[in-house]
């Protein structure tokens, strides 16, 4: 626009790009030269609130955050100092806007238990914070103190960024003491033998080692394998699609779960929440439960855009 009235109403002092939001400071101005790359990064960095409460619905947006660095607060609504801790966390987040995404996770939610386990947070420690860096690998950092005062939170995050705190978590493959593990499949070795065994229901997770969400789901999938370890007619398996090219498999979003039904080997794609409870229902009903999408989350799309989005995600990819 070149309308002076609009400039005054919006508080704009010069030509530029301004993003309007429904949260935090409501609008933000791009403070760097206007290029397609800078505008794209600007929009992406400002597409989420200063502090994000993690859910299955916003997981793709969280994991696609540009810097892929997160400070995570595990909280409990039952905690007497819940409001104070959340206020401190939010205050600290303002100091790292566009550099580190501050994320909260409800520790009281049953589906959060495996994330607590993954970050080595005992339930009695909640509220507690951990820093995670997905830039190279799944790097997790624990603060030296349990204090959740705003200044202590800022000090912890800055120390991680400055390299003053080293990663202090055991390697992922040393976690847990489960006796059962998902069967690792290989196209050149055991894929057809395991997957196309008509005497068994075979659940296969298609994943990549680099996928952040896949890493977070490791303990959940291990727990699922443990649950079915004594079932002779069920196999819990997984396959790394970066090292295995599986014919007729097209994957647009990871991880993907498919159940190959006994007697027919007919594949059914799972479209529900990735939890032990929900995947168990999927297995126990031979793929009937969880095989269709729930009502799509509103995305502020036009009618035509929404129709195309829905068609894409409804498409069976096998």
Automatic annotation (TrEMBL):
Alphabetical UniProt keywords: Isomerase
Example GO BP: protein folding
Domain Thioredoxin, residue spans: 144-288
InterPro entries assigned: Thioredoxin-like_sf (IPR036249), Thioredoxin_domain (IPR013766)
GO cellular component, one term: endoplasmic reticulum
Pfam families (alphabetical): Thioredoxin, Thioredoxin_6
Gene3D superfamilies: Glutaredoxin
Record GO terms (molecular function): protein disulfide isomerase activity
Domain of life: Eukaryota
Region (Disordered): 290-318
Keyword Isomerase: yes
Family assignment from sequence similarity: Belongs to the protein disulfide isomerase family.
Protein's recorded name: Protein disulfide-isomerase a1
